[in-house]
Each structure stands twice: as C-alpha cells, then as structure tokens.
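Fold this sequence, please.
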Amino acid sequence: MMRRLVLAIALPAVLAACGAEEVWAPDEAVRAAAYRSDQSPSITLITAVNNRSNEGAHSAILINGSQRVLYDPAGSWWHKTVPERSDVLYGMTPLMLEFFVDYHARETYRVEVHEIKVTAEQAEAALRAAEAQGAAPKAFCANHTGQVLRQVPGFEKIGGGFFPGRLKKSFAKLPGVVETIYYDDDFDDNRGVLAAQDAAKI
C-alpha cells in the first residue's frame, strides 16, 4: 500500500518534468527564413552516437521538400536566423546544417547521417507530419522521429522505439540509403560552439 501511495505522489512530478517546451515563431519569421534547395527531395536521419559506447544519443531528420526543414525533437541546437515551431526548424541552409552537425560532433560523439532520396509527395508527407507532431518531451527524440517517419508512405515499418541507435539501424536498412559519418575533436562542452555560431557573419 505504501509503495502504491509513493508512486501515486511521484507520478505527477515525473509527468511535469517530461513536459515539452512549445516554441512558436511568428508567421513572418517562418516565411522569411524559408529555404528551398535545388537538390532532389530527400529525407535524412541524423543520429548523434557516443564514441565510447556506440549507443545512439539523439535523433533528428532533415526533410528536403518544398522547403528544407529540420525536425529536431527535444533538441538543444539553435541559431538566431532559424525560427522554430514545436521542434521544426525552418531555414536550414547548407551553412545551418553544417552548424547543426558541428554542434553535435565532438570528442565524445560522432554524427551518423543516413540520406534517402524520396518523391516530392513523400517529402511533403514528412514535412506535414513533422509540423503536426508537436514538441517532444526530453528523451523522446527517437520516439517522435519514428512516429513522424511512419506517417510517410514507404516508411511505415520503421522501428526503434525510444532508442536512437535502433531507429538508425532500422532506417539504414531502407534501399538506397547513403551513409556519411562526421567526427570532430571539439571539447565535450559545446556551449562555445553555439556562441561562435551565433557570432558568425551570415
């Protein structure tokens, strides 16, 4: 009985700690930042992987459709030129993508990128699913990324649950996936990287 009482008291606190942070940039900022790439439509899974344990630590997807956006659930990267709406980051130019990868790749983590070419319809389905998903609570990055991907025709069987590494392995099995791995020897404390990116001339 006592154990049940403790759980009942603790549960609301746990749920409160898992609350997602809603960020909602104004319409004019999103429109102004929109970036349209001339590359073929694609969906790219980006995974931060611990160099010591080889376990996945974070998941995000770059969607190149009518515009290129990054769905970064429960992510911590930001840039003043990239407006955000509930974990969807708009204005993902090549430089901003480079910044994002550089922020995550450091002495203890590498970044594994898996890109697959898709139809324009698949890319738009991914974009709309990401916009509708809502902000993710902490530690739900792989879970929410998988939920978005499974709404895209052809990606319905993507697995992984709450584990970025399992999501990566499932995505990598798709036919036509191209893998790129990024290493960096930056210090593990990457606050300086954010500060440098913020100060960089765009």
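Helices lie at 2-17, 27-33, 94-104, 120-133, 141-149, 164-172, 191-199. The beta strands are 42-50, 56-64, 68-71, 84-85, 88-90, 109-117, 178-182.
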